[in-house]
Design a protein that fits this description.
heterodimer, A: mainly alpha, Rna Polymerase Sigma Factor, Chain: A, Arc Repressor Mutant, subunit A, 76% helix, globular, B: alpha+beta, Immunoglobulin-like, 3 domains, 8 strands, 53% helix, elongated, RNA_pol_sigma-70_dom (chain A), RNA_pol_sigma70_r4 (chain A), transcription (chain A)
């Protein structure tokens, strides 16, 4: 568990923090997620995907449950999402970190509209139809943007 | 809807990887993935993409949180007992290390019989050995913790190096292009009457067929549009590739598609992803070799 924490906590905490937007709540969710991962590790099915995907999904779902339960979503408008992302990036330590380079590279690859869609879907916990409504776009456009963006990201690691 | 292409387009797969689907709908997606390798591939690509996105947003939790979270987690899942973790192996080691002494004590006592001296000596030895083991154990634990920390550091340095190396290779390549005036011919692309401010350059190597693009200034794009570079060979337009958002904003050189022969380069505004033929009335810059 200690090893697991050292290896995955940054990735999980990053996702959780960006969903709940609060350090101490993120800590609670991270803790919950680790317990859940530990207790359900037998149900992890290697044929269904990578371990990383599985653990990130567990953490993300718990974080989304959290914001749904406190009905945080109404206020989580597009603007505040963008603001909080920029704020966090500036607030983070200025020591040299490769994950930040990664973020910059990704920002360069994605056009702002794609990022906005992915952020809403991934960190806002919106469904595609909710995101379409929020952004005043046809559902088809949201679907296309999400797919193009995700495939572009996948290409980056190949 | 038995057509897998249609299924890929339906947006179901995105919902699946984002965890929006009901268990029944999830099973349906998995069933499609099992039947069509194309669906499976698409699904894996989407998952990998999200993984990159998640990793790119990694945020190291405050150091103080590590102890708090771990102890809270251990309180819920029970003490570290799994044989797989190094922390858990420790108690076993201590028992086995002190085994000889444990065994020695009962043997020594009856043999001595008349005197308890041997027994006392053995107990003292056992006690000392336990204290020694406890000390060693805690040192060993510290060592293994710092090992994990070091391994993490090392992994981070390694990935930093990788990223830097990639950037260095790119930069070297750009420098090479800029420093080879014989090999790379500079083609200035001037703005068309509708966009007089627009200005870009193409660096074209006829012998190697390579094309690099350097943007000085381009008008901002409307939503859903992208700049596309075209090479004109004997009046016929050839797609030379799409400009990334970074290139369009003048961030650096971008290598475009290889072009065997051209007399003119031009740029148009096309729907994201590009067009087969240029939309001529959106032509922004143009220049002859």
């Amino acid at each position: 568990m200690t090893e697991f924490y050292d290896r995955y906590s940054a990735a999980l905490f990053g996702v959780i923090q960006r969903i709940v937007k609060d350090d101490s709540e993120a800590e609670d969710v991270l803790q919950e997620a680790l317990v859940k991962i530990w207790n359900s590790i037998e149900s992890y099915d290697t044929s269904k995907g990578r371990l990383f995907t599985w653990v990130v999904n567990i953490s993300r779902n718990l974080a989304i449950d959290k914001i749904r339960s406190r009905q945080h979503r109404v206020s989580a408008s597009v603007q505040s999402l963008d603001d909080s992302l920029t704020a966090q990036r500036q607030a983070s330590p200025d020591s040299f970190r490769p994950e930040h380079i990664g973020l910059q590279e990704i920002t360069k690859q994605l056009v702002p509209e794609q990022r906005q869609v992915i952020d809403l879907l991934y960190f806002g916990g919106f469904t595609q139809s909710e995101a379409a409504e929020e952004l005043n776009l046809p559902l088809g456009t949201v679907k296309t943007r999400a797919r193009t963006a995700l495939k572009m990201l996948a290409k980056l690691v190949r | 809807m038995e057509d897998y292409q249609e299924y890929i387009e339906s947006g179901r797969l995105e919902q699946y990887v984002l965890g929006e689907l009901s268990p029944a709908a999830q099973a349906e997606v998995e069933d499609w993935a099992a039947r069509f390798p194309q669906v499976r591939e698409e699904l894996e690509a989407l998952e990998a993409g999200l993984g990159v996105y998640a990793e790119a947003h990694a945020l190291a939790p405050p150091p103080a949180m590590r102890e708090r979270v771990l102890s809270a987690v251990f309180a819920q899942i029970g003490p570290p007992a799994a044989p797989a973790t190094p922390v858990a192996e420790a108690p076993t080691m201590r028992v086995s290390a002190s085994n000889p002494h444990v065994a020695a004590a009962p043997v020594a006592a009856p043999a001595a019989g008349r005197s308890s001296g041997w027994a006392i000596a053995a107990s003292v030895a056992l006690l000392l050995s336990l204290v020694g083991n406890a000390l060693l154990y805690s040192r060993w634990q510290q060592a293994s913790e710092s090992l994990v920390a070091l391994e993490n550091d090392q992994a981070r340095v390694a990935s930093t190096t990788q990223v830097l190396n990639r950037e260095l290779t790119d930069t070297r390549q750009q420098l090479h292009v800029l420093r080879s005036p014989d090999e790379y011919k500079l083609v200035a692309l001037a703005g068309t009457p509708t966009h007089p401010q627009a200005h870009a350059r193409v660096l074209y190597s006829k012998s190697e067929h390579r094309v690099y693009l350097d943007v000085q200034q381009l008008p901002p794009l409307p939503a859903g549009k992208q700049y596309q570079l075209w090479a004109l060979d004997k009046g016929k337009p050839i797609d030379a590739g799409m400009l990334t958002a970074a290139t369009a904003s003048g961030d650096g050189l971008q290598q475009m598609k290889d072009i065997a022969s051209a007399q003119t380069f031009a740029m148009t505004i096309e729907p994201t992803g590009g067009s087969v033929n240029p939309t001529l009335n959106t032509m922004t810059v143009v220049g002859n070799i």
